Amino acid sequence: MTTTISRKDVIHLASLSNLQLSDSEITSLQGDLGNILKYINQLSELDTEGVEPTYQVTDLENVGRNDVVVEPQADRDALLSLAPVRKDEQIEVPKVL
Amino acid sequence: MTSISDYMGTSAVVNVKRAIEAAKQHDEFHALLALTEERALERATKIDETEVKGRLAGVPFIAKDNFLAFGAPTTAASHFLEKFNAPLQATAIEKLEVEGAICIGKANLDAFAHGGSTENSTFGPTLNAVDKERVAGGSSGGSAVVTALGIVPFALGTDTGGSIRQPASFNGVYGIKPTYGAVSRYGVVAMASSTDTIGCFATNASDAELVMDVMAGRDSHDATTLPDFFEIADVKPGQKIGVIKEFMTDDVDADVKKSVNNYIDKLKSTGHTVEEVSVPLLKYALAMYYIIVPAEISSNLARYDGVRYGKRAEAGSLSDLYGKSRDDGFVDENKRRIMIGSYVLSSGFFDAYYMQAQKARTLLINAFNELLESYDVLIGPVTPTPAFKLGEKASDPIKMYLSDMMTVAASLTGMPAISVPSGNTNSGLPVGVQLIGQRRSDAQLLALAKSLEESV
Q: Could you give the CA distance from residue B265 to residue B370 in angstroms, rounded to a whole number?
């Protein structure tokens, strides 16, 4: 398994992560991420052939509830007022297209 | 330090004023990001006037600033949420309020709870309660310090890989990470959903029991909560206790080991059997943790995009808005974890990292389950060293991660683990001993700790 990470890899990961990094951040992250990957790579030596993965550690399954409206704890206006830019009853963002 | 009983039967207003005064006196530790003075006094007045009789009536407490609470912004120690006024309160806080407890402030943490020293807080680090040149630990450093300084008798924290236990041991207080699912996480800033837990700091085992008893239980807003199993228990006599060999190696500070061994002697002298046990897989626990947790972080933190709430960067297009808001809003450690998460989840690497870690996690759970069939409790240190110096590990993420090596196993297996103060090093730094038990044995762990407290 590869243990080094290129500058191009960092830029790709930043784009997957929706992070617009500065040049100096890319440089320092290249070193840090490479070291972290080197550390976690040791797990590859463990034999896990035929082992089922664990995704959660409760013994609960399919937690359901009745299909009834639950009174919301936060009101609509309180939630809308959290938006950085609000126009009437909507949240405003820059043009998408 | 103070305990809950010091605040019972006195005026809530007096209690709150006393706590706020103590908080202001200890300002230099930077343990708090905000005081919720106005709301706390309002609630206290109401409690005094109506003679509310809850189990925590008029008792002040402080919550880590990743719990949504009224009275001050919920910042998660980040720029992103610097001005975020919570529209609702966390279930844990609501339950404490029903019993009459009063939240007087919000404690410092590593931004988004990523870190082990509180040095990753956007607003500056918290200083250790015992030695101001050392770290408070983290990520719930502020909560540990306000408890250790006696500002409040208990404080709330979150523990995803050691974030309650490690600062508890660094500051000489009790730190409780419950069984996964014991306490609702509704209204708490999510980090890694498969290991995030909510617990508390206290100055004695009885107070910790009471607070956990109030907070635990099923919540329809959090589908991972377990039906309430927490019941304050008497200590079971003659327990079989296993000392985890992998946690007592030569790499571990000699004073830390000495403190654990003293605790073991006390266990023996109170009628318990103690034997050495081994979990060779522990060698890989930290690698599992630093794959699974960043993966979940990268997913959970995708919500911070600068659109619906939080800080928004100036940008001409929507994609720039996302990218710049996230670059401005997160600290370096948040970015590292998000990007490692993106890496281990990306196509081509998914099986080698994420899937491999989830399979390894199954093996770790099996190993712990097998041990806990023969042993009631497992014991070891909380951390390999006492509190380290400020700045000592801040520039080396791996060094910082290694301080989690003894706490991540209970997180990955969902088992309860508590940090119990077990004395000081020669130079006077607090040390904690960690007790780990089978899932749902939280109350038994606390009962054991309490019985030894009484034997001192």
A: 25
